[in-house]
Amino acid sequence: MDDTLATPLSPGAATVPPRKHPRRRTRVFAALRRVLVAPGFVLAIWVANLLAAKLLAGPGRAAARAGMRDWTWFDDGHRIRAVVELLADEPAIAAAISSSVVSAAVVAGIFSLLAAPAILTRLDGQRSLAWIVGAVGRELPAMLVQTGYSLVIRAVCLGLAGACAAGLGPRALPLILLLVSFPVLALDRARAAVVLDDARPYHPMTMLRAVGHVALRPLWWLSGTVIETLKLGVVIAALLLLIEAGPSPISIWVARAAGLAAVILSLWRVALAVEDRGANAP
């Protein structure tokens, strides 16, 4: 071996500083493009949501039909008020609907845990069905642990949001939306770090780094908040339309289309974390 290659640098010799990688900017529409190039995957999630909604709505629908007896719907112009009166007069209907809502929340949480590795893997460009499904089995324990850590962040943010609402009233709505969305975005980042960047799957620092990662990127935080707000607005508007217009085929399909829009918006939010992968990875 040439001895000149092993000659140590003298104390006064100039050294080349390590290269600094520029911080990547949040590319909001590049994240949306990741969703739009996977239409089959989007439709599969939408159909799964429709089937789950149909199953969970069964008890509430049966109780409502029993409570309305010979009536099929409400008269025009008084539907929302009539729904409120029906719930007040028929506690069994209110209980059945409440049970359906709680069940839907539980199912949504379980689905989020199961689907997160598959969603992240597909949005990262992986097309192999075997690899996508295998990601669920490989990463499910880590998803459960990181979700548990995120509950602490969520509790803190909800407490701050409640304090803002109590102190500022309606003027605090933008701040409340930012605080409520923050733990969701941080969990997206932590999950992406585990699934795509080989971060430590069970270590709390993975979640803490994700918190700092989102907090230092205001465009990501703001974009995610806007996306979550749009999703909530779409769902509420579809529900109000269904109540006002009645269970006609058109209104039902409008509600289903709103569900598809909500799926796309949810995937767009997750794609923000995928698009940012490799940048300051934990």
Class by alpha and beta content: mainly alpha
Give the C-alpha Rg: 24 Å
Please state the oligomeric state of the protein chains shown: single chain
Distance between the termini: 39 Å
Approximate strand percentage = under 5%
How would you sum up the global shape?
globular
Mean pLDDT over all positions: 82
Strand segment tally: 0
Sheet with most strands: none
| Low-confidence spans | 1-22, 278-282
Number of helices: 9
Order of helices and strands: HHHHHHHHH
Helicity range of the residues?
Answer: over 70%
Annotation keywords:
single chain, membrane, disordered N terminus, 0% strand, disordered C terminus, 282 residues, mainly alpha, transmembrane, transmembrane helix
Question: Topology, pairings included?
Answer:
Elements: H1 28-36, H2 39-68, H3 79-89, H4 91-123, H5 129-168, H6 173-197, H7 204-215, H8 218-245, H9 249-275
Helix pairs in contact: 1-9, 2-4, 2-9, 3-4, 4-5, 4-6, 5-6, 5-7, 6-7, 6-8, 6-9, 8-9
Structural commentary:
With 282 residues, this protein is mainly α. The protein has a domain at 100-275. It has helices at residues 28-36, 39-68, 79-89, 91-123, 129-168, 173-197, 204-215, 218-245, 249-275. α1 packs across α9 (249-275), α6 (173-197) crosses α9 (249-275) and α8 packs antiparallel against α9 (249-275). It is globular and about 55 Å long. Residues 1-21 are annotated as: Disordered. The chain crosses the membrane at residues 28-48, 92-116, 151-168, 219-243, 250-268. Keywords: Membrane, Transmembrane, Transmembrane helix.
